[in-house]
Write a structure and sequence with these properties.
Helix content is 35%, strand content 22%.
Length: 152
């Protein structure tokens, strides 16, 4: 299902962990509007502004998948309100190169200056870096920015 010009529902359901553990990670119909809102208000404007692909490395998480990946109990991923993203460099998703880290910093700065969001978390684990972006449909967004071990 096409959500916006550049984003599909399948991108939000894709999960290597879910596939490996045989976890059903299909988005419930009632959560699709939340994902569509995140795409329309945050991800698509980011994609359009920079005119480059945005890779969703973690989108929707079923409760079972969220538990398997060690997500927090109240994760916005389970409500379809969040996505972890990284750039595509040389035709492949890249969360490790210095170029990817530089691109993530540029994206974060632009998002902070131009878009509404609930959370923008600059995160990393080991050598992988990504942005966690969330948006609540209907308002109440905090514009919360946190740097979680991300190099400046």
């Amino acid at each position: 299902m096409q959500l916006t010009k550049h984003f599909t529902l399948q991108e939000f359901e894709r999960s290597g962990t879910a596939a490996r553990l045989h976890i059903d990670n299909r988005v419930p119909a009632e959560l699709v509007p939340n994902i569509k809102n995140l795409c329309e208000e945050v991800l698509e404007p980011l994609r359009e502004h920079f005119d480059e692909p945005v890779y969703v490395s973690s989108g929707y998480r079923s409760p079972e998948l969220n538990k398997a990946v060690g997500g927090v109990q109240n994760s916005q991923h389970m409500r379809g309100e969040a996505a972890d993203i990284c750039p595509v460099i040389n035709g492949r998703p890249d969360s490790t190169s210095p170029e990817a880290r530089k691109k993530l910093r540029e994206w974060a700065e632009w998002i902070m200056d131009n878009l509404q969001f609930d959370q923008l978390l600059r995160e990393h684990s080991g050598n992988s870096y990504w942005l966690h972006l969330s948006l609540k449909r209907g308002g109440g967004n905090r514009q919360q920015v946190k740097q979680m071990g991300f190099d400046p």
